[in-house]
Amino acid sequence: MNREEKIKKAIRDSRNISDKILNANTMMALQSLIPEIETYSDFVNQEFGDLDEFSEDPLEKYSELTFYCHMALEEKIDHLEYYAEHPEEISQGVSDFLNYLDSRKWI
Q: Which domain holds residue 71?
């Protein structure tokens, strides 16, 4: 896979995950996304991350895009009851994740 294909995959996967977070309305549905988010994070960190200076593994990489993805999930979990009562509201965490994705600062 060339770089452009990897970028397209990261964008497609990011949007897919953000849609799943937005549409999830139970704790179980959100928690079921964790394995998919971990696989996504591994890919994005490896392909677009910078060396993680705080890791014990000197070769481990970290991308801010995965940070925003994890924060989107956590924010939705923390405010699940609110979003269930206000389905017209977009999760702020998902909004931040998509804004960072669209900024392309992670590339």
A: 3-103
